[in-house]
Amino acid sequence: MDGANELLLWAKGDAFEWALGILIMGTVLRLIEIFSLRRKPDFSVAREHSPGSGWKTIISRSYRVNVSSPRAILTYLTGYTFHIGLLIIILFLTPHIEIWKSMTGFSWPGLATSFIDLIVVITMVALLVALVDRLTSAVKKQLTTVGDYFAWLVTFLPLLTGYFSYHHMWLPYTQMLALHILSVELLMVVLPFTKLIHSVTIGISRWYNGDQFARKGVAS
Amino acid sequence: MTASLEKGHQAFRAVMDAPIASFFSSCVHCGICADACLFHTETGDAKYTPIYKLEPLKRVWKQEFTLLGKLASMIGFYKPITDAELEDWSELVYDSCTLCGRCSMVCPVGNDITYMVRKMREGMAASGHAPAGVIGAVKRTINSGSPMEVTLKALLAQIKHQEDDTGLTIPIDQKGSDYMALLSSMEIINYPEYLGSLAKIFNKAGVSWTLSSDAFEATNAGIQIGASDIAREIVMRIVDAAEKLQVKNVISPECGHAFTALRWEGPNLIGRPYSFNVIHILELLDNLRADGKIKTKGGDSEPLTFHDPCQIVRRGGVVQQPRDLLNMVATDFREMTEHGTMNWCCGGGGGVSANERADELKLLAFKKKKAQIEELGVHKMVTACANCRIVMEGSLEHYNMDVEVVGLSEMVAEYLEE
């Protein structure tokens, strides 16, 4: 067996298991960090009727847009595009569904690979626009740390390597596929310890926000 | 109590809870909150981005409440907060934040940024980095019970005037009343007609009410500066008075942060539920309207709009009541484009109006309200917060705008059916 095949097997086997383990353990640790701080009991009397709740806000923040400056619209546009793109790619590319099936036993119909290929390009373009926006917006530049660029890179690499491997570009297919899987594993390993943890904690923060407003009778 | 950096640091640690940890964990540095903050939109200065105002608190969380942060600190990457840094941040946390809560409504990941700014002020005050103007208001409240040093004698004088104007008796220290009304110093001094309006409306509706000579001031400078111990003491004065008079309800006046202090923060400050209900005056008036106990005749036909006080509407849930009341007494009520829970602040809430250092910035921030008024083309604006009212009157004068500001309770009283 040549080196590329060995690398691919390792990426699909031990490396994946380690990455999955770190992803799960790291996420659990971050959740413990949050919940161990607890929340003091609220002795104020909550309103009986409220149009809002923590659960509603988890959903409503995904579609409710209350700012309209050109820069904010660009942020929303790129944000929606690459998040939806990533979800489609992760959930509906047939080889990805096979991985889900091997882990959970469940499978579902995939979308045409050529369509997913287009989604990959659109997602990468959205991420590139988001990067340029981050590099040029005064507000974003002020908030940005090295961690933001790192999080961007580990999100972009799986898309790029996936695109290259599908199109047999730059490196032989086996090597590029191995790199693709390893880039995904890098993403899995760093997710709990970077801002990418928002993929999990967003539900918690939105819930707290919705709950705090709903007590007062406001849908947030 | 003497302020020190160490006390500030300890206060930052003490306020850290699960919501704050989840908010900081979720922030993706998208900067959307900047577009929700009138201090950013009206100045264009990136430093007024709401989440940026929390950087020192965020660093304490990251370094001391996350595993990676602790590990990094152990190997020399710990960057302590300093007095110089907090002094720099004082302007961001006090001058350029009215705790209006608009940023908390738009953050895509759901961060309640206002909640965190309120908490961060605890550390800012404890470390001695609160603005002199707000410290002055706190000192006056501790010493005299009022941020404007309004004494019982001054109140009694205003009561006498209002009794003469209305021909009605304004009850004081009436044990067993259904409602105990509170006032803000600004109402007593600048808008005493509010008191006369209450007398007229309650007389007509047959409401059993009283004022208390022990606690008539509703505002709470302790909340604005971020000193829970002082805020607790101020709330406790009201609780003691209400319990002494055995009232069933306490009425929060036309003052935004007084409602937040009393209705939402108060029970948590004293560590127990109240033995009475807290109701905002607009809620009570709307209940009386719905029950048919107050009826009005005629109404104002001039085009007018309503300025939503942030703490009463967005942060207080009294959204529809002012609209129902206004529609009862006005025939040409026009909403601003962004109103209700997405209103824009007057620019002077959350202690900003007590902070002389922020005077210029406050006027810049008012440009948002100015644009809203100009878009509607009205010359009359109704509101339900004495602080909003005084801030807007000053700002309207500064910009030479011919717009009258009116209190909603007074307007209801004006059109009461005889």
Structural summary, described in words:
The complex is a heterodimer of chains A (220) and B (418). Chain A is 73% helix and 0% strand. Chain A has one domain: Transmembrane di-heme cytochromes, Chain C (Fumarate Reductase Cytochrome B subunit), CATH 1.20.950.20. The mean pLDDT of chain A is 96. Chain A is mostly helical. Chain B starts with a helix and ends with a helix. With 418 residues, chain B is mainly alpha-helical. The mean pLDDT of chain B is 96. Chain B has helices at 5-15, 18-26, 38-43, 55-65, 67-77, 83-95, 102-106, 113-126, 132-144, 152-166, 185-189, 193-205, 221-225, 228-245, 256-270, 281-290, 320-329, 359-365, 367-376, 386-398, 408-414; strands at residues 179-181, 209-210, 249-252, 277-280, 305-306, 380-383, 404-407. Chains A and B meet through helix 1, helix 3, helix 6 and helix 9 of A and helix 2, helix 7 and helix 15 of B.
- Average pLDDT over all residues of chain A: 96
Q: Radius of gyration of chain A, rounded?
A: 20 Å
Per DSSP, the total helix count of chain B is 21
Poorly predicted parts of chain B: none
Cα-atom radius of gyration of chain B: 22 Å
In quaternary terms, these chains amount to heterodimer
Q: Strand fraction band of chain A?
A: under 5%
Summed up, the helix count of chain A is 9
CATH superfamily of chain A: Transmembrane di-heme cytochromes, Chain C
Overall pLDDT of chain B, averaged? 96
Helix content of chain A: over 70%
Q: Based on the structure given, which CATH architecture of the largest domain in chain B is correct?
A: 3-Layer(aba) Sandwich
Shape of chain B: globular
Strand order of the largest sheet of chain B: 2-1-3-4
Name of the CATH first level of chain A: Mainly Alpha
Q: What is the helical fraction of chain B, as a range of percent?
A: 40-55%
How big a fraction of the residues of chain B is strand? 5-15%
Estimate nothing, just give the exact number of structural domains of chain B: 3
**Low-confidence runs of chain A (pLDDT<50, min 5 residues)?**
none
The string of secondary-structure elements of chain B, in order, is: HHHHHHHHHHEHHEHHEHEHEHHHEHEH
The CATH topology of the largest domain in chain B, please? Rossmann fold
